[in-house]
Design goal:
By secondary structure, the protein is of the alpha/beta class. The protein folds into two domains: 119 residues, Aspartate Aminotransferase, domain 1 (Alpha-Beta Complex), CATH 3.90.1150; 199 residues, Type I PLP-dependent aspartate aminotransferase-like (Major domain) (Aspartate Aminotransferase, domain 2, 3-Layer(aba) Sandwich). 44% of the residues lie in helices and 16% in strands. The chain contains 15 helices and 13 strands. The strands form three sheets. Strands 2-8-7-6-5-3-4 form a seven-stranded mixed β-sheet, sandwiched between helices. Strand 9 and strand 10 form a beta hairpin. Helix 2 crosses helix 12, helix 9 crosses helix 13 and helix 14 packs antiparallel against helix 15. The chain is globular and about 60 Å long. It binds pyridoxal-5'-phosphate.
């Protein structure tokens, strides 16, 4: 190990990696455009065949009247919540304390729209019907994130979703689906995207997570909602003159990967079982319910970086390039399964986990 060996550079130099579809490099765009015809017209300010056909395809997938392409999920969801608040004349919404809107968007919802937020459930679990019933405040919209990313991608039961949906509809509360990874949870629920979306008034999906496009999001709902969302997209500067690099690559990777979500889900379960068999390592959830989970280590970030760098250098298998500290005695990383997992020879995988197990045991001494 040299002085300059860091977790991320040793990870990047491994022959095989456990998670993701591969590097986010220029090749991702080049591959998507390899067979594209050069005379295909670009979309212009939200109009044209390229954007309209893709939006129609996504509306059909989600079983909604209309779908609108957005450059980011951050933009799409702030807008969705603003529309529902304006409709009800009440600037208040509820969501999970670890929602992307609450912790990753520099308070865009509050700063730009003056929308108040009610945080439901505690940080370690998903929102249940009782949290919604016990809220004690009127709100315009409830946002549910499926799967709940910051707690390893946990999910409520389908019955809970149905009951929350009915409760919201009875109380005049709009229900929005933060479905960045919606396709990734379909194998667990054994439902189609459209079936799940019937429980929600509006839905967002990401085009660069399990699908693996460059960037972009879809926001879908009834026509009244999506027409308003287009006005807000223009106000936000999200109506780029041409979005086709994002749309065509999203479509390309959607076609390549949307039918592989069952594979990623099964691979996540297998990989989690390998981690759980290693001394002191645990995953959250212990049995994944989507293609993602968190891997927890009861040691400091510095100690674990050292161990994982050794695993990378000695076995050629990349575990992670990105560990996050929880406190001085524990850390974790997020695992999202994609195309790379099945490229790893089984004996190399077994060897890496044996090595990791040995190293974890040696930490006790
Ligand atoms: C659950 C969830 N919501 C929203 C977003 C925001 O997506 P974007 O990067 O397209 O703004 C993300 C991105 O990581 C996410 O994981």
């Amino acid at each position: 190990m040299t002085e300059s060996s860091t977790l991320s550079n040793t990870y990047n130099e491994t022959k095989y990696q456990l998670t993701t579809h591969g590097k986010r490099n220029i090749q991702v765009l080049k591959e998507a455009f390899r067979k594209m015809e050069g005379d295909l017209d670009s979309d212009i300010y939200g109009k044209g065949k390229v954007i309209e056909e893709f939006q129609e395809k996504m509306a059909a997938l989600l079983g909604k009247d209309q779908a609108v392409f957005f450059p980011s999920g951050t933009m799409a969801e702030q807008i969705a919540l603003r529309i529902w608040c304006d409709d009800k004349g009440l600037q208040k919404v509820a969501y999970h304390p670890l929602s992307h809107l609450e912790i990753h968007e520099e308070d865009g919802l509050k700063e730009l729209h003056k929308i108040e937020t009610v945080l439901l459930a505690d940080k370690s679990r998903v929102i249940e019907l009782e949290d919604v019933e016990g809220m004690g405040e009127d709100i315009a919209c409830l946002l549910l994130e499926l799967p709940q990313r910051e707690i390893g991608g946990q999910l409520p039961s389908y019955e809970t979703l149905e009951r929350i949906s009915k409760y919201c509809s009875d109380k005049g509360i709009k229900l929005h689906l933060e479905g960045a990874r919606l396709l990734e949870v379909l194998p667990y629920y054994q439902k189609s995207a459209a079936e799940i979306c019937t429980l929600f008034d509006s839905v967002y999906i990401s085009l660069y997570k399990g699908i693996g496009g460059i960037a972009g999001a879809i926001l879908a709902g009834d026509r009244h909602f999506t027409e308003k969302s287009k006005v807000w997209k223009r106000r936000y500067g999200g109506d780029l003159i041409s979005l086709y690099p994002y749309i065509l690559s999203a479509d390309y990777y959607y076609e390549m990967r949307s039918h592989k979500m069952q594979q990623y889900y099964e691979d996540a379960q297998e990989l989690a079982s390998h981690f759980n068999a290693v001394h002191t390592i645990t995953t959250v959830p212990s049995i994944p319910v989507s293609n993602m989970f968190h891997v927890h280590f009861p040691y400091s970030l510095v100690q674990m970086e050292k161990v994982l760098i050794e695993v990378h250098l000695q076995t050629g298998i990349g575990i992670t390039g990105n560990l996050k500290e929880i406190d001085s005695n524990s850390c974790y990383f997020e695992a999202s399964l994609g195309d790379l997992y099945r490229k790893i020879p089984k004996d190399s995988l077994a060897n890496a986990f044996e090595y990791l197990d040995d190293r974890m045991k040696s930490l006790l001494n």
